[in-house]
Write a structure and sequence with these properties.
The complex is a heterodimer of chains A (86) and B (234). Chain A is an alpha+beta fold and 86 residues long. Helices cover 33% and strands 30% of the residues of chain A. In chain A, strands 2-1-3 form a three-stranded antiparallel β-sheet, with helices on one face. Chain A is elongated, with a radius of gyration of 17 Å. The relative contact order of chain A is 0.34. Classes of the chains: A alpha+beta (86), B alpha/beta (234).
């Protein structure tokens, strides 16, 4: 079993209205050194396979087809092998 | 002519669309539930506004994989007429039937108000009864209507005359002030290259009777209905 953490963020070239709203709110709270905020999503998939390669392939395909919209978003995948539990 | 209005869980303009097409335009109209795998006798598919599947993940992203959308994609590939309004436009973008994507409005607020649209191309079944540069007053109601596409794809849209409507001022001028959501090039509505699929963020089905503020939306429906009647008469 592998856990895939898919991190999705807006592409660098794209204005991030949510990140901007968070930055403004942080500024209001006095966090003046925070100059940029980018907001994204974390989607966690538990994939039932013993093969790291297969898990990576499945997570990548799922990201391409549904989880991310590559017109505006980039995604990164971290894979962690999960310990079997009784 | 038969019109099919697709209904997803979370669609909320389906009855407005039905009312506009059936009672105002007088065309035979039926609802098509998202689990259907047949579009019946529909000649025009209308994907209405709302928040399909709660807008989870991204607007339109889940709806795009519902059973009925597989049929809509095949229907469009055969040249069938498809029109997406607001969330329906977002679904068509996610389905890849139209190019580009929608982002949150730049001003970070849901925006619900009347807008002026300038007709940019009359070369489509959706705008055939409208004059070029004619202004239509049609309301918007969305939080994610900020149309985005990269420069290359934008140039292709412009070169292929796929921009049907731009947000304009009341005098017809295309300015940043007239842009309610930050859409690239003030784009409010586009069609595909084959010109049988169109999407627009403003709601023409909410502008079909003077009593509700404007009846300019009828121009779009008259265009598509009359084009269908003239082709089927041949």
């Amino acid at each position: 079993m592998f856990q895939a953490n898919v991190r999705i963020t807006l592409r660098k070239s794209i204005l991030d209205p949510k990140g901007k709203a968070i930055r403004l709110a942080l500024g209001n709270l006095g966090f003046n050194k925070v100059e940029e905020v980018r907001a994204g999503k974390l989607i966690r998939l538990n994939i039932n396979t013993g093969s790291r390669e297969e898990a990576e392939k499945i997570a990548t395909e799922a990201s391409r087809q549904l989880l991310a919209n590559e017109v505006m978003e980039d995604f990164e995948i971290d894979l962690v092998e999960m310990q079997a539990t009784g | 002519m038969n019109i099919g209005v697709i209904v997803f869980p979370g669609s909320n303009c389906d009855h407005d669309a039905y009312h506009a097409m059936k009672h105002v335009m007088g065309v035979n109209t039926t609802f098509i539930w998202h689990k259907e795998t047949s579009l019946g006798q529909a000649d025009l598919i209308l994907i209405p506004g709302g928040f399909s599947y709660g807008d989870y993940l991204r607007s339109g992203a889940i709806a795009r994989f519902s059973p009925v959308m597989g049929e809509v994609i095949k229907f469009a590939a055969r040249g069938g007429l498809v029109m997406g309004i607001c969330n329906g436009f977002q679904v068509l973008l996610e389905a890849g039937l139209l190019p580009g994507t929608m982002m949150h409005n730049t001003q970070l607020r849901f925006s619900c108000k009347q807008t002026w649209l300038r007709c940019e191309s009359t070369d489509s079944v959706f705008t055939g009864k409208i004059k070029k540069n004619q202004l239509l007053q049609i309301p918007i109601a969305h939080g994610e209507g900020n149309y985005y596409t990269d420069e290359q794809a934008l140039k292709a849209l412009q070169d292929n005359d796929q921009v049907l409507f731009r947000y304009a001022g009341a005098a017809g001028n295309i300015t940043p002030e007239a842009n309610p959501n930050g859409s690239v090039d003030n784009i409010a509505g586009i069609c595909n290259k084959a010109r049988n699929v169109m999407g627009m963020m403003p709601h023409p089905e909410r502008a079909v009777e003077p009593a509700i503020g404007s009846d300019h939306g009828k121009k779009i429906f008259e265009s598509v209905i009359s084009s269908f009647q003239s082709t089927s008469a041949l």
